[in-house]
Amino acid sequence: MVQLLEEGLGDAELQILHTIACAGIRKAVNDPGLVHRLPYYSNVALLRDIAGMEVDSLPAPLLKLTGVFVTIKKRHHTGKDELRGCKGCIVPSEPLYCCAISSAIKSAVHDTRFDPVTSAELEDLTVGVSALTAPEPIASWEDYEVGRHGIILAKGEHKA
Asked: For the chain (length 160 residues), average pLDDT per consecutive 10?
């Protein structure tokens, strides 16, 4: 079971996280090779190059190992939103701000269910960032609450 962590983050932290994710999406759309260079960035350089921020200026909760998902939707004139990408990490190996950047970039240009987001679409996008608690087992399916808890599906080494 995984729960949203947003109640543990203040409005300022959530706004910074959203700003970081949006900057990652813009950068990825305008620099298609970025997703392939991600493994070569240091965390400090990644934040500076993508969002123009310094790690020292980030609040402590964004420096913790925390899972995150970034969801991109496109607004249509009909008022209906269409999913354009969603990527994240359930069990993080990097600080929250790093996971948010890489998840945003992958959501925009590396979600294989969709064509990459284009620069023409940027103004019509909405971006959702969901910080997660660490996964924990539940005793029974009856403990699961739809809309509050997430589920990790696993088969062999694959997880979703």
From this structure: 54 92 95 86 90 94 93 89 94 92 94 96 93 83 81 80
Question: Rounded to whole angstroms, what are the CA distances from 14 to 92, 127, 129?
Answer: 18, 12, 8
State the amino acid at position 49 in one-letter form: D
Residue by residue, DSSP assigns 13-31 as: HHHHHHHHHHHHHHHHHH-
Q: Tell me what pLDDT residue 8 has.
A: 66
- Tell me the two tokens of residue 35: 């997703």
Work out the widest C-alpha separation in the chain, in whole angstroms.
47
Q: What is the DSSP string of 51-111?
A: HS--GGGS-GGGGSB-EEEEEEEEE-TTS-EEEEEEEEESS-SSBHHHHHHHHHHHHHH--
Note the pTM of the prediction, 2 decimals. Answer: 0.86
Q: Given its phi and psi angles, is residue 147 left (phi above 0), alpha (psi -120 to 50 degrees) or beta?
A: left
Length reported for the chain: 160
